[in-house]
Design goal:
2 copies of one chain form a homodimer. The first copy, chain A, is mostly helical. The first copy, chain A, folds into 2 domains: about 15-70, Orthogonal Bundle (Arc Repressor Mutant, subunit A); about 70-229, Tetracycline Repressor, domain 2 (Orthogonal Bundle), CATH 1.10.357.10. Chain A contains 10 helices and no strands. Chain A has helices spanning about 20-45, 50-60, 60-70, 70-90, 100-120, 125-135, 140-165, 175-195, 200-215, 215-220. In chain A, helix 1 crosses helix 2 (about 50-60), helix 1 packs across helix 4 (about 70-90) and helix 4 (about 70-90) packs parallel to helix 7. At the A-B interface, helix 7, helix 8 and helix 10 of A face helix 7, helix 8 and helix 10 of B. Chain B binds a DNA duplex (30 and 30 nucleotides) through helix 1 and helix 3.
Chain lengths: ~230, ~230
Amino acid sequence: MAAHTPRPTAAPEDAGRTPGLRERKKQQTRDALVQAAHELFLGQGFARTTVDEIASAVDVSQRTFFRYFANKDEAALAVMAEAEDYFIECLHHRPADETPLQALRASIIKAWRDLGNDKASGPGSITSALELMRLIEDTPTLLAAHLRRVTEQERIVVRVLAEREGLDPREDLRPTVLAAVFGSVLRAAHLSWTADREPEGPEGMIALIEQHFDQLGPALAGHWRTPAT
Amino acid sequence: MAAHTPRPTAAPEDAGRTPGLRERKKQQTRDALVQAAHELFLGQGFARTTVDEIASAVDVSQRTFFRYFANKDEAALAVMAEAEDYFIECLHHRPADETPLQALRASIIKAWRDLGNDKASGPGSITSALELMRLIEDTPTLLAAHLRRVTEQERIVVRVLAEREGLDPREDLRPTVLAAVFGSVLRAAHLSWTADREPEGPEGMIALIEQHFDQLGPALAGHWRTPAT
DNA sequence: GGAGATTATGTCAGCGACTGACATTCGGCA
DNA sequence: TGCCGAATGTCAGTCGCTGACATAATCTCC
């Protein structure tokens, strides 16, 4: 979310312009809906919160809610979605001399670090991100929707990697395989974070991510008779 | 009717016995529901099939449907679930001298091969499995539910691997990481299968799985400047 | 072989997510 | 100012899903 305020919409110079009252109001009610949904979900659970509640908390009709979000899930996952977009953006900017795996690792760490610095508190903060991930993890329908989103992100990662290394993902399986592996290891780290003892700030999460990635080699290697590092 | 055939109901050796009329009928209507759901979903799509349709195709009430399945998704994914259970069973029986990764690869291949031989046609056959996977892949809500199921299976895999190698998954990250990697590579192979050109039988799928696993090393290794094998 | 306990099923009423259609209001712009 | 299009509200309806209660089928045990 760090570099996100200027949302380029159409023309190149139009980029920084004030997007007009209508557009601003739209963004405003959307934010308000996400915010309200967030609070209600965390306060009383996902299932026990009705869309009507969210809508009337922002003073719009239920129908309007569904014009902003395809379903209740989407409102809950909106925050995560922004973070994921930022990760993709980071990946685009990695130097070409990094290996694909290095680029992925560096991007995800940069993303967490920036997001952590950017918003130390308030909605979208790291602490509320943790709460949100906990909510997702033990709300089956939310978890399902989230996993689907993640796999869609993976497709984008495949494209970016293939482009970066100049090869065709339909010919060469490496981008697909690496994106899949990356995503799953990341998710394992996420799980540890939510399940674990002391949920430290972003640095704690970063440490967890690195730990998990460092086990990639050992996990794939032969037997496990010797203890891991 | 058969008032007194020897029908011990609680004894341990009862395991293989005919499970009683009630139990048999239950299994029967459950199978019929899965079957009907399967046909309707493939015929007219998941969203355009109502639960009422499925129920009345088997001549039971809608309420009964929901006593067998928690939701519409579950009926669609029931076939997959059986296959996944069989995979876990295979994993349990792998010899101890295989490395964890080898055991996983061997189990999934055995599972596909056995299921392929077992049911050459009809419901639950390989061809209808392919159709089902296509349906899942382009039905967002089904895909989401399926992914959630897969991650639950992964947890079991973690347990089995940890037990097999005699270590504690909370201390040692390798089981978790390997299970995650395995699951994601498998899913990549599944995607190729559904998206791909010639959907050959189970052997085609097995070949695809092996291709993907063989790219694990190359994908994680340094740069990709040299073409993959 | 029948009385009584279990258990599957049906029926009914109701909530909540989601959608299409149409009316209304509000911002953008000549 | 006045028109156009976009955002919103209203309404009615479908469908997934659930709790409560009644009924009918199986099971158990005497």
